[in-house]
Structures are given as C-alpha cells and as structure tokens.
Amino acid sequence: MADQEKLYEVMGELLFAVAKADGVIQPEEEKELQALLQGHPWADAIRWSFDYEANRDASVEDVYKKVIAFCEMNGPSGAYVEFTQAMERIAAAADGIDLKEREMMTSFAKDLTTRFRKDLGIE
Domain 4-119, what fold? Predict the structure, then answer.
C-alpha cells in the first residue's frame, strides 16, 4: 500500500487525464478543480501532479496507463471512490461529460475491478 501523498498525486494525474481527454483543459474544469481542492487535506499533492502533467503536455493515454499501473500495484482502496467522484465533477464542469471523458471514467472502474477480481481469484 502506497503512502497517502503518492496516492493523491496519482489522483491529480487522473484528473489531468480526464480534463484533457477532449483535447484541452477547459477553464471551467480548472475552476472545478480549484473548488474540489478547497480544504482537501491532500490539495497540494493533487495540484502539483495535475500541474506537472499539464506543464509537460503529457499524453492522456500515457498518464492514464501510469495511473492504472499504480492503482493495480497499490491494490484496492476506498480512495478510488473519491477519485471517481472527482473525475465526474471535472468532466461535467465544461459542457457536460463528453464521450472520451465518459469512456475514461468507465474504463477506470472496469480496469481496476477486473484486476482486483483476478487477484482475488474471482475471475
């Protein structure tokens, strides 16, 4: 199990990926991220990793793969519910949730569920 700071850095990467899934981070998504971070105990870690990926203009696909690999290694975590809720908020912030954003959110839950079921021998 990873430390909390690293876990929330990964959340920032995931939020970057969903915000950029449609090709550009919209001002409304940025505003929603700020609202989401208000008072969050790991706001600095989330913001840092979001900005890091944005500043290097990272590939959405590469960042998403990195997030999934980390989460698979980390194992099941209640934090993933928060990740999913945050993804919904960011994606909905600008003109509703588009197809690419929806696919990424669906993939996140499906990829992790499949992996954890396999690890538990349920598959």
Answer: TerB-like (1.10.3680)
